[in-house]
Amino acid sequence: MQKTLWTALLLTVLGVAGGVWWLYSSLDGVVAAAIRSYGPEITGVSVQLESVKISPTDGTAAVRGLEIGNPQGFHTARALSMGEVSMELDVASLTKDLVHVKRLWIEKPEITYAYAPSGSNLDLLLRHVQAYIAENAGAPEAGKGKAGEKKLVIDHLYIKGAHAQVSAEVLQGKTLRVPVPDLHLTDIGKKTKGVSPAEATRQVLGALIQSVGKAVAPLHLEGVAGRVKKVGLSAADAIQGLFK
Fold this sequence. Notes:
Layout: H1 2-25, H2 27-43, E1 47-48, E2 51-55, E3 60-64, E4 67-68, E5 80-81, E6 84-89, E7 98-107, E8 110-115, H3 121-137, E9 151-160, E10 163-168, E11 175-179, E12 183-188, H4 197-216, H5 221-231, H6 235-242
Parallel strand pairs: 7-9, 8-10
Antiparallel strand pairs: 1-4, 2-3, 3-6, 4-5, 5-8, 6-7, 9-12, 10-11
Helix pairs in contact: 3-4
């Protein structure tokens, strides 16, 4: 009887261990599938992803080749190219309703800022995310999402070494590359016991747009566009005018 009990207990432990191993070994694919599935739904544009690699032993993760496309009406290939995104996280939380990300680094992302008087490509991305949140939450309150949806808490998020490729009709097909100030966001979702992935996207994208705005402001795109319309500046004159 005792031998049977110990055998059953051993089989149970092995079964649980095997299940945990399978779960963690398949997390890469689960997270990658979620990004590919929900990314376009949240942003309204194409989302490309090369790979996701999660290391349960040291609590780190890397997302490579993440690219976010442009809204309709903008002709460049993408709005954001992340390159590699690194994370330090509580791996056990990936199987729970509240996912805890301790630190998230986005190093040297490339941003396409397509200026238009009615709103840039980044502005349109943000509007779609906001509309998605309102539609799925039933109200604009931050943090609410679809029933059963995982929520996030991000202690620290860093965006460093970003550059923006600025394009506008006034540049007549030419672009300008400008550095974007670094960002450090803290305690995303902490006060509300987690936020939906869409709300986290809204907060990060909103902060990024502000940072890009600071980088682009000295170019006075709106003023130069007005001068082009009034006096018919050439592309070379328009670009020179951006630095006056």
